[in-house]
Amino acid sequence: SLSDRLTATFKNLRGKGRLTESDVNSTIRDIRLALLDADVALPVVKQFTAGVRERALGAEVSQALNPAQQVVKIVNDELVSILGGETRTIQYAKNPPTVIMLAGLQGAGKTTLAGKLAYWLKDQGHTPILVAADLQRPNAVTQLEVVGERAGVPVFAPERGNIGGHDAVGPTGEGTRSFGDPIAVSRAGIEQARQKQHDVVIVDTAGRLAVDADLMQQAANIRAAIQPDEVLFVIDAMIGQAAVETAQAFQEGVDFTGVVLSKLDGDARGGAALSVASITGRPIMFASTGENVKDFEVFHPDRMASRILDMGDVLTLIEQAERAFDRSQAEEMQRKFLAEEDFTFDDFLSQMAALKKMGGLKSMLGMMPGMGQMKAQLDNLDPKEFDRIEAMVRSMTPFERTHSKQINGSRRARIAKGSGVQVSEVNALLERFTEAQKMMKQLARGGGIPGMPGMPG
Ligand code: GDP
Ligand code: MG
């Protein structure tokens, strides 16, 4: 899979002290192969690798990350940007109802999505209604009614008598075999929504098994007639390379405002997602992840990128660490960790300040092997306590800060008085300091974990 291949690529980089141009080139070659392997369209692969190369060779080097981490971060950032950057959801009409039209091939998952979207909208406090404008197949209306019932959302469908199976001369003209006029039904559905105060209308339309001019014309005609606020192009994430052609055909034929990736629960490799968003320049807005009405998600480019990279938490970890640390400061700290006697109360203070900044890492540290102790440190750290610790350290003489073992009873009493705390607190601090010394020495000896600045890796 794409994830596996990229992970292997990054493994090769791990442990490199510096990134040479040939490292960058061979990494980019690997990334290119991995993307092509995952059915990402060639122009997208080219754009992507060019972006990564430029940034990897450019001046954008981070002080806090080692070269392999930098490349991972760059690849992640480029993925997010190619997937559309920001998360985007429905833009609601100023004057309700907001009309959302669904378009896509037959079997793409439109009708299923209609139910999911309605359910999700209802959950957000909206009052959606579904409109059955797929009148191509007799059972399409019934299917939408079943979907609407599951979602607990009303369905507007043509009068049963009208779905009699005549050859309608519909908007597509020339005797399309149809069970009614999708435009008339859509208009009536929107009118009903207005009267019954439904604030969102979801119009389910017909698809064909393959792109054809007739289908495009029908969809384009519906769009022109009802002027929807959003046109969502639903595409099966499993169709691989064909996704690009299909998306382009729909963009030219109907145009759409957003993309929905369906069947992401399957074995989809992310290639289609990458290609469609990038080639059409339209954001992926939702993901459909199963047959159930709740199998639906707002699409987050950053999460998809992590999913593709298969290293979500590690990336977040790197990012937060990058914010909290400066690499040179971290290296100085690490040098001191290696020599216990060098580790002073001043270092202890800066270490705590860094830990404080890394507060958001707690849950992740807990999940990482060997980081339990650091999580415990963070658990024990509340901001007020940090202020008290700082006050105590400030009440120490320079000699005391570098010779913690020499801090006897009378010195402790003086520090307590100077910082306005109980002697027992000074005792606790000294104990904690000794623990921190031990822990740091242990981490330094144990080789630390890759990805944590300030520790060998
Ligand atoms: P439409 O022709 O575009 O309306 O597609 P449908 O909504 O009828 O879906 C076609 C088939 O795909 C149905 O069997 C659905 O149950 C299935 N399907 C739709 N969305 C998903 C999905 O997200 N995951 C999975 N596993 N199946 C889906
Ligand atoms: Mg359908």
What is the CA-CA span between the terminal residues?
Answer: 26 Å
Helix share bin:
55-70%
Taking pLDDT < 50 over at least 5 consecutive residues as the criterion, the unreliable ranges are 162-177, 312-317, 360-373, 447-457
Roughly what fraction of the amino acids lie in strands?
Answer: 5-15%
Task: Tell me about this structure.
With 457 residues, the chain is an alpha/beta fold. It has three domains: 2-82, SRP54, nucleotide-binding domain (Four Helix Bundle (Hemerythrin (Met), subunit A)); 98-299, Rossmann fold, CATH 3.40.50; 326-446, Signal recognition particle, SRP54 subunit, M-domain (434 Repressor (Amino-terminal Domain)). The protein is built from 20 helices and eight strands. It has helices at 2-13, 21-37, 42-57, 67-82, 110-123, 138-151, 182-195, 213-226, 242-253, 271-280, 301-309, 312-324, 327-338, 345-357, 362-367, 372-379, 383-394, 398-402, 409-419, 423-446; strands at 98-103, 128-133, 155-156, 200-205, 230-236, 258-262, 284-288, 296-298. It has an eight-stranded mixed beta sheet, sandwiched between helices. Helix 1 packs antiparallel against helix 2. The longest helix has 24 residues, at 423-446. It is elongated. The protein starts with a helix and ends in an 11-residue tail after the last helix. The model is unreliable at 162-177, 312-317, 360-373 and 447-457 (pLDDT under 50). The structure holds guanosine-5'-diphosphate and magnesium ion (MG).
